Amino acid sequence: MLNCMGSMKMNALNKCLMEYISSQLGKDPSCNLVPVFSDYQSYVSDISAKYSSDVEAHSSTTVAAVTVSSTGAGEYTQRVVVNS
Q1: In Å, how far from its chain's centre is CA 39?
Q2: Fewer Cβ within 10 Å of end Cβ, the chain: N or C?
Q3: How far is CA 82 from the centre of its chain?
Q4: Of 63, 56, 46, nearest to 3 (Cα)?
Q5: Is 76 a residue whose pLDDT tops 90?
Q6: Does the CA dihedral 30-74-34-2 come out positive or negative?
Q7: Domain count, the chain
Q8: Smallest Cα–Cα separation from 39: which of 67, 59, 60, 58?
Q9: What phi and psi, each to the nearest 5 degrees, are found at residue 67?
Q10: Max Cα–Cα distance, the chain, nearest Å
Q11: Domain that includes residue 42, residue range
């Protein structure tokens, strides 16, 4: 179970994910979303490890930015920057 900060980070991550998916599907309904979900799984694991209700040592870590950009060839990258 996540503590309050972890829940807030999951909320922000999920909102960013939904906005990104909606944007990409609007541009190309047949786009490949597998890389997005691979990254998402990694971010969720990181948040879970740092913000489980029994872990308080990492409470100063914050998500600073989420960037979504086009590579120009119909491929998209998503980057979440985490600052400690």
Answers
A1: 7
A2: C
A3: 10
A4: 56
A5: no
A6: negative
A7: 1
A8: 67
A9: -120, 130
A10: 44
A11: 4-83
How far out from the chain centre does Cα 28 lie?
Answer: 21
Q: How high is the pLDDT of residue 52?
A: 87
Residue-wise pLDDT tens digits, 12-39: 999 999 999 999 999 999 999 999 999 9
CA 23 vs. chain centroid, Å, equals: 15
The secondary structure element, H or E, covering residue 72 is: none
Q: To which residue do tokens 């309050």 refer?
A: 4
Please name the residue ranges forming H helices in the chain: 4-27, 34-51
User: Of the ranges 17-31, 51-65, 66-80, which is most confident?
Assistant: 17-31
R_g over Cα of the chain: 14
